[in-house]
Amino acid sequence: MKKSKRGHDSGLESTGAAAAAVPYMLEGAYGGGADEDYQEDAAPAAGSKRCNCKKARCLKLYCVCFAAGVYCSSCACVECLNTLGTQELVLKERNKKLQQSPWAFAPKVEQKEGELAHKKGCRCRRSRCIKKYCECYDAQVFCNAACRCEACRNMPEGGIAAPHAIPHIAAQQQQQLQLPPSRAQQQLPHSRAPSANAAALFGAPAQPAGLGLGPMAGATFGDGLVKRASYGTAQLSYGPGQLPYRAAQLPYDVRAEDLEAALARQRTVAAQADSGPSGSSGGGAGGAGEPPPRAAGRGGPPLGPGRSSVVAAMGAGYGDSLEVLDAAQEAGLGVRGRGRNQQVRGLGPDAGRLPGASDGFHPPQHAPGGAADKHCDGGPLYDNPALLYDNPAPMHGNGGGSLYGNGGGPPHGNGGRPLHGDRLEPAVGPSYGMPTAFMSMDAIAAAAQAASAATASGLRGQHLGARAEPLPPPASGGLAAPGAGGDIPAAGGSVAAAFGGASFGGDEMARAAGGMALEQQGEGASGRVERERVARRSSSDPEEDAAVAAAQRGAPASVPCPPADDLPGAATGGVATAGEHLPPEGFDPLRRADRAAAGVAVGVMAPGAVGAAGLRGPPALGIAAGGTAAAAAEAAAAARQGPQQPTAGRLDPLPAALGADGGLSQYGSGELSYGGDDGEDHSALVDAVLQAPGLLLQDPERAEQLAVWLGLDVPQQLAARKAAQILTALLQMAGAAAAARPAQGIAPGGSKWCGRRPPTMQPAPAPLVQQTSRTLHHPPTAAPEPHSRDPASQGHELVLLHALFGGRRAVVGLDLSHGMISLAERAIQAYRQQQQLLGQQAQARPAGAGPSLAPLDAVVADASCLDGRGPAAVVMSVFGLQQMGSAAPQALASWARALAPGGVCVVVLWPPRVEAAGPWTAYEQVDRLQRHKMEWESLDQFWQVMTEGGPWRARRLAQGDAAMADLRARFAAKYDALVAEYDGAGAEQGGSGRVEEGQGQLDGRPDGDVMQDALLEITGGRSVPRVFINGSFFGGGDDTAAAASNGKLQKLLTEAGAL
DNA sequence: GAGTTTGAAACT
DNA sequence: CAGTTTCAAACTC
Ligand SMILES: [Zn+2]
Ligand SMILES: [Zn+2]
Ligand SMILES: [Zn+2]
Ligand SMILES: [Zn+2]
Ligand SMILES: [Zn+2]
Ligand SMILES: [Zn+2]
């Protein structure tokens, strides 16, 4: 379209028919500012293509033209703004991008180690990098070390990954890039034309030769300087005592075979335990490949709930795949239904399928014409109140009712009837704010109880009686040849890190664990070590002291430290002889006294609360977020006119797409407005949507999937999709009011977590970990310091543990998710390379000889069950226990059992105790507790976070707003009562009288502890607070008594942590 | 050509 | 960024 003013013709133009691509820039400087120097015309790049942008207006990098730095020409774009006539806008947007990243328009392919490679690498998940979806493949280069693709086949040697991929490029590109031919050129696997994107990948289209600007200009960029464009980090601000929260995504998928292997392994362990307690010298500690520890007598007892811990499958991946469910079901684990929330997007033939997935369950067939085969097993289960109702959990002793089913029969809401008939058989257990699809609560309960019984008889003490292996002599530097360590030697004194995040956080935690052990070791030389610092705290409150004293009955303030032979860091590598540390009869790892006697310590660090993520709650609840203004307008129009109505008369898209500042905004200005004076009152419509029964989703695809899964007919499916859009629009219109009044059954912001991790806000781990580190090293004498706001580093707790112990302790990381394991392996590999480098620098080492370092492995395994894996000097878990729901105590017990005498188990747990059951019971079983206090702005904020993003989210969804409103009222009343009580008890302040709701002690802020007390109080009735301290029953009784005891408990725990 | 799948850009 | 939504091209049928 654009006419050449100067008519430069480089002669490179490939086709006369194609209009010339017009670059903006005279110079090929990708980072250069766009100004009037742009070349108004130039020859088109050989590979330049036309775009077909419909919405981006060709002013986003979505647009290949814009990305390539040329004006649109002969493109099929709609309402294109990437034209000479809109050049100011173009340059403005371009500069905006350049401001974000100087390399925004730089080639994505650069010279790497002598070869061409994609600069940032690809992250292909499903295309195996042999489709042009993959930017590497599209650019005709091999994937390289920067890639994080899965099952990549874009590698030399037929998919065998090389240390770094050897790039290869087509001769055409060689020429274009003016590079010498690659030595890998002959391996060219690709003989196709580059896509339209290729031009962008390789930078701006070729300049006319006369300019003397080789496209290679881009090659001078990058090379270490490349920094990934970071969008506004917009980190929440948090003051002292507050924790930063952020969201994250990690590969949590669990493969069926991994689960099967984990189960088989546990089967074997159980069989060994049954056949005789002596058999196993500690059991195998799991080498690479994680085979069953031993092929013990075939055919152990049939796998039952008690024999394994599928709960970890949820912890590691929420049982995201149908395969997991199938495996669990086949294993007889009491899974009653099955479903899949694996669906990510789309409903196509292979949607949601994992490679090699077996086809199992076929949902109601959907849609005519090609859609019949659509595969949508199950669906989003988590937020469905009906599911929660239908599966009350009999586990928690009080009344036998699910916390969320309220005694098995919901008194509120829709009466607990399945919304959708029998098809809602899949069992869902709310796991305290975390979704635990596929396992009913009673199945979990049965598993946990059976596991408890089984371990009580069979496995208990097995590891403590195992013989610890002597430490190998210290390595003299460098790292031995890979694999030199071979298998983990009989697990002796190895370190088992049962981590929930393979490469996440935990650095400091690892230091803490190791440092704590070292500290013990040092003191151990004198034969004794103080292990129970909690006991020596003295309080000014006599009543509290009495409580503490009572609490610690039977738990000596300090216990003799067992010989430190097995403590990490022991330089001489002693041997803890079998029998010497056999636990006493009836040893219960969950009882502190027992652990103290056995010299086993368990520490739990618990952040204080769910988090001040802002009044609007965590992003998962970003009700009004998302949706373009245009879509919102469209949906609003549709809402007015009916789902199937045309959207004529809607807002003109152009102004809608322009942000408030006139700049282009993908999401528009955020305001929903109508082209004309609408004048209508939409509140009724808003209410209608918000109060619609069942599950409303914002994400159209997910909504449609749900409809499919529910067996609704096609019009309803389409309506569901539309409803999602409408919901978005209406929520936008409703604004804060709607956000403050979440409707029953709505899963705000739901969308696409199905196949990945459900969005939750979590405390950023680094501050916690640092805090705990300090605590473990040096018990605080004062209030905790303000948390650092440094983000968590990419954690490598395995590596750190390994290094901490001088490479002389075998370290095993466990996660059931292979994705997490591969992350860990990446870290391990980097560590090894670093070690190798250090070894080479240190050199002076004769080849060969030299002691090898202990193995360091990450294996796919069930981290919740360490039976057969001990004894371990350290067991560490970061954010793992909390995901194990009601079975958390069993997991904790398993970890404790796996500890060698003198060992240390460190657990980072979230969220706070707000109920008497579930993971929070771990609070009563710890030797040291560090609790982080949160600040809350108001009762409302606390309640909102608790019920929308926190542990009571599931309850809210299950019981509905009416019930929650009731609870809210009781909560407020209870809070008032507690405040008054505490005030009265604390001092005769002359009738501080009534404390206004939301008003607390400090700064007009409510007291988080009291609020949590109140929350705990109103949890399910008088008998619920079954509070144990050191194994002795501490709570119960009527409301008042429970109030008192609970308050004491909370204080006690707090003080214990603060010490 | 219509509908689906895909991975990266855009956004908060 | 232990995140989500939108996008246009690639892909499939
Ligand atoms: Zn375009
Ligand atoms: Zn274009
Ligand atoms: Zn255009
Ligand atoms: Zn790729
Ligand atoms: Zn790649
Ligand atoms: Zn690849």
TrEMBL record:
Q: Where is the composition biased (Basic and acidic residues)?
A: 528-540
Compositionally skewed regions (Low complexity) per UniProt? 547-557, 569-579, 637-649
Give the family this protein belongs to, as stated in its UniProt record: Belongs to the lin-54 family.
What name does UniProt use for this protein? Protein tesmin/TSO1-like CXC 2
Region span, Disordered:
171-192, 267-308, 336-378, 399-428, 464-483, 518-586, 637-656, 757-793, 986-1006
Q: Which InterPro entries match?
A: CRC, Lin-54_fam, SAM-dependent_MTases_sf, Tesmin/TSO1-like_CXC, Thioredoxin-like_sf
The places in or outside the cell where this protein is found are:
Nucleus
Biological process annotations from GO: regulation of DNA-templated transcription
Q: What residues does the CRC domain cover?
A: 47-157
Q: Which UniProt keywords apply?
A: Nucleus
What coarse category fits the chief subcellular location reported for this protein? nucleus
PROSITE patterns from the UniProt entry? CRC, GLUTAREDOXIN_2
One short Pfam name that applies is: TCR
